């Protein structure tokens, strides 16, 4: 009996290590999907840096947005590199085939409609993989089809409604979709509704927090609750700090070799960016402004003055 | 007479029980020895798999990968980022897996005149990359690797020097301790 449970523990431990290896391999590219089929239907719990199955836990330093508990032998895994304004780290998104996502927008506002189509990928590649069961739906369409969606809701382990736009537009609808079985809502409020929609705020479990960059916004769709999202946000800001520190040092080396290139302003921008990340500042506009300035400055290095990233 | 016979019978019984215990003990010893051996073998296999996977993924880490205008360049390592990363707190990310590993980069071609480990002075020296040939990214603590065997895995990489816009041939070396 003791032997059987030890053998099982060794198997689960190896399974978790294999899963982590698979994630590392996936994370080495900018955009990848994996639909592994595991031999056993193991219950997988993903919670703040720990992958757990049965009594066995495996520590991971990866940033994983996932349902709290998945009982499947066929998890859907998607990864994207967080690029803000340079590649920082990989984000991993977990889901399963029995989950459904509805992205809801107000079709009178063309910018948001275009953004949603771009975000979910009906226009450009790369996009959210088809297997992840995403549907784009306008407020009017949702109002018309809500009864059908409610009837089908029980077929899914989770129905996630993602509202994109001003939270006031969705107050009434948010209450109505709560009647759909196994439902969860996420509201995305971009900082600006007409030009830069890549940073802003998300409301998870009614609580407001920030997103910076599209990859982090995807994370809000998949995070099971605010704690999971915020844990990953803090980890992402720590990675942002260390990668920015690496660029800061690189700029210092370049400055010592090429003093004529004027890397001082660039370094001061990197210093501010680093400070914001280290403070875990939750104002998305401060990051977005710095990203704009860094991108512009980086493009300005030419000829004998190498760009930094 | 009968008590003597009884004593002999009891001693025989004790002896038989003793022999049975020895046989069970030996059986358990060999069983667990075999079992521990199979776990050790699986651990070694997992170590090899993780190290091979790392060999592929390290060159694509954003912390050290070359990029031009935010576009990453495959299989290219930026020397300045590599050195900065070796000094950063994130270098512990390389520790993943179940066995300790060392991760180094060696300059192969053009072959440097000096065979020594590079430090910051060497890297900033105008003679670089001729003045040293090895950049140590991560070395596990001595007590973790004592009395362990080592397997070396290597793969060729491009090493890029931003200020000279120069790319040379190097080698990523992973030493996995088993």
Concise description?
The complex is a heterodimer of chains A (309) and B (178). Chain A has 309 residues and is of the alpha/beta class.
Description of the molecule:
The complex is a heterodimer of chains A (309) and B (178). Chain A is α/β, with parallel strands linked by helices and 309 residues long. Chain A is built from eight helices and 14 strands. Chain A has a six-stranded mixed sheet with strand order 10-9-11-12-13-14. In chain A, strands 1-7-8-5 form a four-stranded mixed sheet, with helices on one face. In chain A, a hairpin with an 8-residue loop joins strand 12 (183-190) and strand 13. The radius of gyration of chain A is 21 Å and the shape is globular. The N and C termini of chain A lie far apart (57 Å). In chain A, 42% of the residues are buried. The mean pLDDT of chain A is 89. Chain B is of the alpha+beta class. Chain B is built from four helices and six strands. Chain B has helices at residues 2-57, 79-86, 120-124, 142-145, and strands at 65-68, 71-78, 101-109, 134-138, 150-161, 166-177. In chain B, strands 1-2-5-6-3-4 form a six-stranded mixed sheet. The A-B interface holds A 3, 10, 14, 17-18, 20-21, 24-25, 27-30, 61, 81, 83, 85-89, 239, 242-243, 245-247, 249-250, 253-254, 256-258, 295, 298-299, 306-307, 309 and B 35, 39, 42, 46, 49-50, 53-54, 56-57, 59-63, 65, 67-70, 72, 78, 80-81, 83-85, 87-90, 93, 96-98, 123-124, 162-163, 165.
């Amino acid at each position: 009996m003791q032997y059987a449970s030890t053998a099982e523990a060794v198997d689960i431990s190896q399974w978790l290590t294999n899963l982590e290896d698979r994630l590392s391999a996936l994370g080495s590219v900018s955009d990848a999907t994996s639909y592994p089929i595991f031999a056993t239907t193991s219950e997988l719990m993903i919670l703040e840096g720990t992958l757990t199955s049965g009594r066995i836990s495996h520590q991971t330093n990866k940033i994983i947005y996932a349902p709290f508990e998945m009982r499947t032998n066929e998890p859907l895994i998607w990864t994207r590199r967080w690029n803000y304004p340079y590649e920082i780290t990989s984000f991993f998104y977990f889901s399963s085939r029995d989950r459904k996502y509805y992205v809801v927008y107000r079709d009178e506002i063309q910018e948001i409609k275009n953004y949603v189509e771009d975000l979910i990928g009906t226009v450009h590649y790369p996009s959210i993989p088809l297997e992840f069961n995403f549907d784009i739906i306008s407020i009017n369409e949702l109002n018309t089809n809500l009864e059908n969606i409610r009837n089908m809701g029980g077929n899914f382990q989770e129905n996630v409604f993602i509202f994109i736009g001003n939270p006031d537009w969705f107050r009434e609808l948010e209450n109505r979709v709560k009647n759909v079985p196994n439902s969860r809502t996420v509201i995305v409020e971009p900082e600006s509704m007409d030009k830069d929609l890549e940073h802003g705020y998300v409301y998870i479990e009614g609580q407001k927090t920030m997103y910076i960059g599209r990859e982090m916004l995807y994370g809000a769709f998949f995070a099971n609750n605010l704690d999971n999202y915020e844990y990953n946000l803090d980890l992402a800001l720590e990675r942002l700090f260390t990668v920015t520190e690496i660029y800061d040092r690189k700029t210092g080396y370049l400055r010592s070799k090429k003093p004529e290139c004027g890397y001082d302003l660039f370094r001061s921008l990197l210093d501010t960016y680093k400070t914001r990340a280290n403070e875990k500042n939750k104002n998305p506009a401060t990051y977005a402004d710095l990203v704009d300035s860094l991108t512009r400055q980086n493009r300005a290095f030419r000829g004998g003055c190498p760009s930094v990233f | 007479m009968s008590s003597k016979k009884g004593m002999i019978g009891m001693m025989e019984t004790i002896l038989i029980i003793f022999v049975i215990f020895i046989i069970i003990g030996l059986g358990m010893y060999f069983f667990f020895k075999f079992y521990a051996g199979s776990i050790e073998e699986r651990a070694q296999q997992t170590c090899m798999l993780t190290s091979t996977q790392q060999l592929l993924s390290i060159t694509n880490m954003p912390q050290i990968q070359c990029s031009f205008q935010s576009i990453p360049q495959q299989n290219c390592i930026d020397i300045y980022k590599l050195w900065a990363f070796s000094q950063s707190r994130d270098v512990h990310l390389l520790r993943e897996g179940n066995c300790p590993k060392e991760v180094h980069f060696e300059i192969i071609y053009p072959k440097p005149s000096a065979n020594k480990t590079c430090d910051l002075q060497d890297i900033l020296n105008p003679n670089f990359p001729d003045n040293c040939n090895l950049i140590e990214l991560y070395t596990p603590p001595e007590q973790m690797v004592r009395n362990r065997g080592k397997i070396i895995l290597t793969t060729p990489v491009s090493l890029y020097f931003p200020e000279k816009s120069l790319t040379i041939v190097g080698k990523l070396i992973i030493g996995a301790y088993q």
